Amino acid sequence: MVPHTLVLGPGLEVHSIYCGYYFWGRPSPDELWHDLREVFKQTKPDFDPTSPVAA
Questions:
Q1: Of 16, 28, 40, 54, whose CA is between 20 and 30 Å from 3?
Q2: Is residue 52 domain-resident?
Q3: Is 55 in contact with 46 (CB distance < 8 Å)?
Q4: How confident is the model at residue 23 (pLDDT cuts 50, 70, 90)?
């Protein structure tokens, strides 16, 4: 069985899937950080402090 890592959005919606073992196929912390930034951009309208919604 191959281990999987899932990045989930609200409502347990699958945003991205990584499959692999410890040394190959696993996401790096940087990849997880980028995925979570994308999830937050989609779910929080005030994510970008320079947008008019955040003001």
A1: 40
A2: no
A3: no
A4: confident
Average pLDDT over every residue of 25-29? 88
**Does a structural domain hold residue 53?**
no
**Token pair of 32 as six digits:** 């997880």
DSSP code of 52?
T
Q: Provide the pLDDT for residue 10.
A: 92
CB 38 within 8 A of CB 15: yes
Token output for 16: 């991205």
Tally the domains of the chain: 1
DSSP three-state, residue 1: coil
Question: C-alpha distances in angstroms, 19 versus 33, 43, 49?
Answer: 17, 25, 34
* Residue 55 confidence (pLDDT): 65
31-55 mean pLDDT:
85
